[in-house]
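Students often ask why we bother encoding 3D structure as a string. The short answer is that it lets us treat folding as translation between two languages. Here is a chain of 191 residues written in the first language.
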Amino acid sequence: MSTRVREILRLQEQPVRLHEVCYGQTTPPRCPHGGMVPPMDLVRHCFTEPFDEGSRRNPSDLTPTARVIEAIMRRTLLPRMGYREGLTRIQLWLLNSLMQQTVFDIWDLLLSEMEDTIAEGFRGHRQLPYAHWITFLIHRAVTVRSPEMIAEYSGTTIEFPAYNLTQMIHHSTPQAPSQPRRRPEVPETIA
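And here it is in the second language, the structure alphabet:
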């Protein structure tokens, strides 16, 4: 399966696997804040000076180039919904590889992230952000397409519908709380 995916994505297997570098042989789910911290000398070029042992490794301390790459990385290869105030260890390894233009196995990175998300299951807080990759792979892997499938693809919109801005304004303007409705008073009858 992995070989077929590499063929579809036109990716060659590479010897550098960032998940192995960061987490070693730890089995999924791997904790985003776990793993090996990249050595200071390895990531020094990603951070503004002075940067030495014990320096913070936060996005606000990145060089301008590293900040742009980190923003792109968060939206593509390694999306993270939360923890924007810091960098996880795998993010540091990935940022360093991108900054130094080190060739690494992208498919292994994506697959390992998917394994972690699935292994965490319902008790985890991660989301599987690779729906666009998975959809693309399924679309390319299915070689025989029925007429119904082709009709569904051609009928699918690829644009967002036009929004009625008055609805947005109506829902965003604060409104006074409404008073509960009162029942008309009914006099008690004497029995």
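Translate back mentally: Residues 2-137 form one domain. Keep this in mind for the problem set.
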